[in-house]
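This part of the workshop introduces the protein records we will be handling. To make this concrete, we reproduce a full record directly below:
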Amino acid sequence: MEREAIGLASWFVAVLGRSDAGELATLIAPYLAADTEPDDSEDELDDADVVVEDEVVRLLRALGLPVPEDLLEVE
Protein backbone atom coordinates (compact mmCIF):
# COMPACT_ATOMS: atom_id res chain seq x y z
CA MET A 1 0.00 0.00 0.00
CA GLU A 2 2.87 2.38 0.73
CA ARG A 3 4.28 1.92 -2.78
CA GLU A 4 0.90 2.76 -4.32
CA ALA A 5 0.52 5.88 -2.17
CA ILE A 6 4.00 7.07 -3.15
CA GLY A 7 3.29 6.40 -6.83
CA LEU A 8 -0.02 8.26 -6.77
CA ALA A 9 1.53 11.16 -4.86
CA SER A 10 4.42 11.32 -7.34
CA TRP A 11 1.98 11.44 -10.25
CA PHE A 12 -0.05 14.14 -8.52
CA VAL A 13 3.11 16.22 -7.93
CA ALA A 14 4.23 15.80 -11.55
CA VAL A 15 0.85 16.72 -13.02
CA LEU A 16 0.15 19.71 -10.79
CA GLY A 17 3.71 20.89 -10.20
CA ARG A 18 3.55 20.51 -6.44
CA SER A 19 6.56 19.65 -4.32
CA ASP A 20 5.04 17.87 -1.32
CA ALA A 21 5.07 14.22 -2.48
CA GLY A 22 5.90 12.86 0.98
CA GLU A 23 3.03 14.69 2.65
CA LEU A 24 0.66 13.70 -0.13
CA ALA A 25 1.65 10.02 0.15
CA THR A 26 0.84 10.14 3.87
CA LEU A 27 -2.50 11.78 3.10
CA ILE A 28 -3.36 9.29 0.34
CA ALA A 29 -2.35 6.04 2.10
CA PRO A 30 -5.45 5.69 4.33
CA TYR A 31 -7.70 5.85 1.25
CA LEU A 32 -6.08 2.83 -0.39
CA ALA A 33 -7.29 -0.70 0.19
CA ALA A 34 -5.01 -2.96 2.17
CA ASP A 35 -3.67 -6.10 0.54
CA THR A 36 -5.56 -8.52 2.76
CA GLU A 37 -7.83 -11.45 2.14
CA PRO A 38 -11.53 -10.74 2.69
CA ASP A 39 -13.05 -12.45 5.70
CA ASP A 40 -16.57 -13.54 6.55
CA SER A 41 -17.38 -10.40 8.55
CA GLU A 42 -18.36 -8.35 5.49
CA ASP A 43 -21.87 -7.91 6.88
CA GLU A 44 -20.41 -5.89 9.76
CA LEU A 45 -18.74 -3.31 7.50
CA ASP A 46 -20.10 0.19 7.17
CA ASP A 47 -21.01 1.01 3.55
CA ALA A 48 -18.92 4.19 3.79
CA ASP A 49 -15.86 2.02 4.33
CA VAL A 50 -16.37 -0.08 1.21
CA VAL A 51 -18.17 2.03 -1.40
CA VAL A 52 -15.51 3.10 -3.87
CA GLU A 53 -17.33 6.24 -4.96
CA ASP A 54 -17.47 7.54 -1.37
CA GLU A 55 -13.75 6.96 -0.90
CA VAL A 56 -12.95 8.71 -4.19
CA VAL A 57 -14.97 11.75 -3.09
CA ARG A 58 -13.13 11.83 0.24
CA LEU A 59 -9.75 11.50 -1.46
CA LEU A 60 -10.47 14.23 -4.01
CA ARG A 61 -11.61 16.58 -1.25
CA ALA A 62 -8.55 15.78 0.88
CA LEU A 63 -6.32 16.62 -2.08
CA GLY A 64 -8.21 19.85 -2.72
CA LEU A 65 -9.48 18.70 -6.11
CA PRO A 66 -12.94 19.33 -7.55
CA VAL A 67 -15.40 16.46 -7.25
CA PRO A 68 -17.20 15.53 -10.49
CA GLU A 69 -20.96 16.12 -10.42
CA ASP A 70 -21.68 12.43 -11.04
CA LEU A 71 -19.85 11.45 -7.86
CA LEU A 72 -21.73 14.02 -5.82
CA GLU A 73 -25.00 12.43 -6.91
CA VAL A 74 -23.85 9.07 -5.50
CA GLU A 75 -22.89 10.54 -2.14
Summary: The chain is about 60% helix and 0% strand.
